[in-house]
Amino acid sequence: MPYQVLIVEDQEMPRQLFEIFVKSDPRYAHAASISNAELAIDFCRHGRIDLILMDVMTELGSSGLDAAEAIKKEFPETRIIIVTSMPEASWLKRAREIGVDSFWYKEAQKEPILAVMERTMAGERIYPDEPPLVRIGCASNHDFSQRELEILRELIAGDSNTEIGKRLGISASTVKYHVQNMLEKTGMHTRTELAAVARSLGIAIK
Amino acid sequence: MRGFVTLPVPAQNLVCFWALLVCLGGIANAVLLWRQKRRLLCAAGALCFLGAYFFLHVCRAGTEWRLNGADDPLTMALLRLPGGVILAALLLTTAVCILLYRSVSAWRKTHITSASIKESVDGLPAGVCYYLEDGRCIFSNHRMNDLCLSLLGQTLQNGKALYALVKESPIYAMPDGTAVSFRHRLLTYEGAPLHELIADDITELYEKTEQLRADNERSRRLAENMRAYGETISDTVRQQEILQAKINIHDEMNRMILATGRAIQSGSEAERRETLKIWQNQALLLCKEADRREKSSTVSDLNTLASVIGLRLVWKGMPKSREPAVLTLFLAAAREAMTNAAKHAKAETLTIAVSEDAAALRAQFTNDGAPPAPEIAESGGLAVLRRRLEAAGGSMQIETAPGFCLAVRIPKGGTSHAVSGFDRGGSGDAPAAL
């Protein structure tokens, strides 16, 4: 009996692509495709779902990671592969924490999705070592420290150093120091430029 | 007769002139030392003067004696002193005089006088002024005079008038590009009130403040831009994702075309069939997509879910709002209605009636299943839904006859004012049994 696959993807094109892949392999059956991650759990409740291909940023801002967490709690047997094109490093970490089975970067990963699906169904957990390399100014996302990425995430909201510091539990001057470091690494001139570019590249998403 | 009088007359005159100089020097020293409040040295100066004066007196007396003879015994005794002694006395007096004068100038260099105070205060960048209760100015410096001239248009005479002007707004930007800040203090001097008015030079501070204000304004604008950017970013990213996906599809098609070309040229029958099947799948998908694209993905998601549950959805109107907050609540209500219809009522059809105006979206979910007990306990999903709706300023109503009906009102535009007036009336709290 083929595995029932649920596709959670709000973009038409990648969704079509996943459907083509799922339908091309007789070991999988396409159960349904939806845009909003919040609904995924309903499909698990009302029928058998063996595997979910889950995007992170889905319709109406609903988070695929939140949905995956709820599903893993209620249906630990259901395998979940997070598929995303955003190199946001914290997602990788969070996916591991909530027990997502595999993680696949849409454009950057060499291994085809079908191979990842096959290994995941065989019980393997497949995670890329790190997010795909994305150039930002003179640096890449791999050049940023954990703390810098945290600050970058807060920077996107347009908050002041004091507000960011308060949220992360550090002083405003420390925040300023890290921001300055990032500006030097990337060769950018303003924090606004840094935040805008980082967000649009998906290096940091709040 | 030996002594001074035996000297030749020009020599006598020269000595007299010398004594006159010492006499004047003694007076000057005494006066200066008196002003420096050094009384002891002042007395020494005075003694110099007296000595020199007495000598002059003796000279005059000597001349008279030569002419008329003299009887003053003291003068006679002095006149009889040898010339060397008189010369030595005069020399000593001169030396004392010079030493005193040097002491006076040395003291001047190491001590503060009122003139030196005035001089140094005049050099200050700040304006300083002290005036009495009636406004009479007793001390002021150049800077304060200049300030007064530019502010009042007259020289500083009345400190009170200047203070009255600067009392309300103490900071002034002067025409020469500087900025000053006035401050006032009431002191007591020798039992009488003394007013102190000081104008601090805050040019640099003022410029920095202006700069800071401009910078703050700039960063506020940037933060605003950033926020606006943050709001539109998900759309932008989505567009980029779509573009990337289109590229992928394009590449996929390309690959398929190449594979097809190969299959046609050299492939086996089975291979050609396989290729044909893939093309068919692709075409089918694209057709389905074109059909689906018309509807919002929320609606299509709900339809997909309904088909899995085995429920038929009848739409009477569709949600048109694109606000994520509104659609999220609508989706939550629809999920709840679908779960109830399938689980409790075993219904086949769920009718969703949606009406919308500028203020709110109203949706009514009715199922054709078995009617529930007239009093249903609102717990679990329904209670959560009510809390979410009411937190957003919306409302929710449940009717149990003739069938189960869930009605929700979701306000638009993120306003949170709760409006209780609902289509079918009644307060939202009681599980109404109509």
Task: Write a concise keyword list for the protein shown above.
heterodimer; A: 206 residues; alpha/beta; Rossmann fold; five-stranded parallel sheet; 9 helices; 7 strands; B: 434 residues; alpha+beta; Beta-Lactamase
Provide a descriptive summary of the structure in words.
The complex is a heterodimer of chains A (206) and B (434). Chain A is of the alpha/beta class. Chain A folds into two domains: 3-121, Rossmann fold (3-Layer(aba) Sandwich), CATH 3.40.50.2300; 135-201, Winged helix-like DNA-binding domain superfamily/Winged helix DNA-binding domain (Arc Repressor Mutant, subunit A). Chain A has helices at 12-24, 40-46, 64-74, 89-97, 113-121, 146-155, 161-168, 172-186, 191-201, and strands spanning 3-8, 28-34, 51-55, 79-84, 102-105, 135-136, 139-140. The N and C termini of chain A lie far apart (41 Å). The model of chain A has no long low-confidence stretch (mean pLDDT 87). In chain B, strands 2-1-5-4-3 form a five-stranded antiparallel sheet. In chain B, strands 6-7-8-10-9 form a five-stranded mixed sheet, covered by helices on one side. Chain B is built from twelve helices and ten strands. The termini of chain B are far apart. In chain B, helix 8 (203-266) crosses helix 9. In chain B, 58% of the residues lie in helices and 15% in strands. Chain B has helices spanning 9-35, 39-68, 73-79, 83-110, 114-122, 142-152, 159-166, 203-266, 269-292, 297-309, 324-343, 381-391; strands at residues 127-132, 137-140, 171-173, 179-189, 192-201, 312-316, 349-356, 360-367, 395-399, 405-411. Chain B has three domains: 4-110; 117-201, PAS domain (Beta-Lactamase, 2-Layer Sandwich), CATH 3.30.450; 297-411, Histidine kinase-like ATPase, C-terminal domain (Heat Shock Protein 90, 2-Layer Sandwich), CATH 3.30.565.10. Chains A and B meet through helix 1, strand 2, helix 2 and helix 9 of A and helix 8, helix 9, helix 10 and helix 11 of B.
